[in-house]
Amino acid sequence: MSDSPSRRLWKTAETVHAVTYFSEESIAAARELGYRGFWMGYFAFRAAPLGPVGPAAVEALFNNFHADRVARALPDAWEIAPPSVAIDRRRGAAAEALRRFGVEGPDEYLLQAMFGSVATIAPHGRAMFAANRQIAPTGDPVADLWQWCTTVREHRGDGHVAALAVLGIDGLEATVLLAADLGIDFELFEQSRGWERRHIDAALSRLGQHGLVDEDGGLTESGRSLRQEIEDLTDRQAFGVLSRLGEAHELVLAHLEGAAEAIRSAGAIPYPNPIGLDPR
């Protein structure tokens, strides 16, 4: 069965957005600004549209990081380089990487359709989306492609966090369910999200008590059903972007799929990864 339009949008926009985490240009840009280590650069670049925010809000909005990992980066990062600088540098570095991978920007018609599609979406309950949407286009079609994909990615992310909250699943539990579903070693999330094995074991125990994982840490039938419900809820909320693209939505998806394929072909995204992207 082929992916739904919402899943196609996620896979492509997420791949374009993800160069900000994995490309040498983006990692170097954070280092050149003076951010100390990868994770300070990550939190500063991603949180910058929110302004000089502290760790509590970022922990809540990003949803799946241990509090200590966030607190080691924020608010100290803003004393090194403020949000306005981080916004410009992250977008510029991402555009440099995309050009190296052979990604071209959309034409003026598509860009207008793309930015118009997010302009009319209600921002209520979508802090990351609203913060990114206020960033104006630069006139550089590659940089603007990256920013639009980032805005759309955060729109979906806000909806995903809302879906988890409605279903009573916290960020760590969602991470454990994702890992169990995709067969990703839990160690990847210890390294990338700052959890210790004891935290993961405690989450496994809670999920096991509810019949969602088995004794080996794999999903039960109920666990698979819950995972599907989470993704379905997220997809339904994300469809608002596509519905506002109107007749342009297939052209936009085709352009994004071409960009995503160029990024994958360049080996720019590691697999497996904590985002849940696969190489297809």
SSE layout and pairings?
Elements: H1 5-17, H2 19-22, H3 24-33, H4 37-47, H5 55-62, H6 67-71, H7 76-80, H8 83-100, H9 108-119, H10 127-133, H11 141-167, H12 171-182, H13 186-193, H14 197-209, H15 221-245, H16 249-265
Task: Considering the chains and any ligands shown, give keywords for the structure.
single chain; 280 residues; mainly alpha; 70% helix; 0% strand; globular
Structure description:
The protein is mostly helical and 280 residues long. The protein has one domain (5-265). Helices cover 70% and strands 0% of the residues. It contains 16 helices and no strands. The chain has helices spanning 5-17, 19-22, 24-33, 37-47, 55-62, 67-71, 76-80, 83-100, 108-119, 127-133, 141-167, 171-182, 186-193, 197-209, 221-245, 249-265. It is globular, with a radius of gyration of 18 Å. The mean pLDDT is 95.
* Number of beta-strand segments: 0
Q: Roughly what fraction of the amino acids lie in strands?
A: under 5%
The value of Rg in angstroms is 18 Å
How far do the termini sit from each other? 14 Å
What's the number of structural domains? 1
Form type: globular
Share of helical residues: 55-70%
Helix-strand pattern: HHHHHHHHHHHHHHHH
| Average residue pLDDT | 95
Helix-strand category: mainly alpha
The largest sheet, given as strand count, sense and whether it forms a barrel, is:
none
